[in-house]
Amino acid sequence: ECASVCGGRPARALDAISPNPVNAIRPLDVDGKAQERCGCRTFGNHGSWEAVLSGAAVVKAIKAWGERRGIGALSRIGWPLTIDVAERLRSGRPTRFAIRSRSLKTPVTLTAPELQRLLNSTGSGRPVRSADFEVARRGSELLVRGSGFGHGVGLCQYGAEAMARAGGSTREILQRYYPGATVERAWA
Questions:
Q1: What is the pLDDT of residues 35-69, one digit of tens each?
Q2: Helices 112-120 & 55-69 angle (0-180, nearest 10)
Q3: Could you give the strand order of the β-sheet that contains 108-111, starting from the edge strand earlier in sequence?
């Protein structure tokens, strides 16, 4: 099943996709407050989720990621490690994470999408469904709890469906997810 679900905390395209100025288009430049009450949190199966990852697999993935990017300090990383949110958007969605381990002199910081990709490289499938998550250590594993599915930018499919089922019009739905956008006929 594929869907774009904001998890109740949307992201700006500049933060979730890339800082390229092309992503600063007005309807995708929301500050996160417009969608706080999105119905996707209670409608559908991606509102909230959790995944349990092997600590050894995460350490191995971090070492490989560091090697590919020439970050030598990560070649010595070991268990136990902690992964904490280092920065958030106004909506509460994390944008940066700090990885700490006894073997690191200073924390290594990754963007939320980078860490999501790294954690998803530890096994099969896509256990970390969006970049809106937090990580806790539990014994020899990491517990990842998150919400949404995808980058959180633009229209939330489950939220739009929830609005439609509650009687929302097409225009109301579009205004919620693309504030400031206009709907016009583009042909004669």
A1: 456 777 666 666 778 999 999 999 999 999 888 88
A2: 120
A3: 81-88, 94-101, 108-111
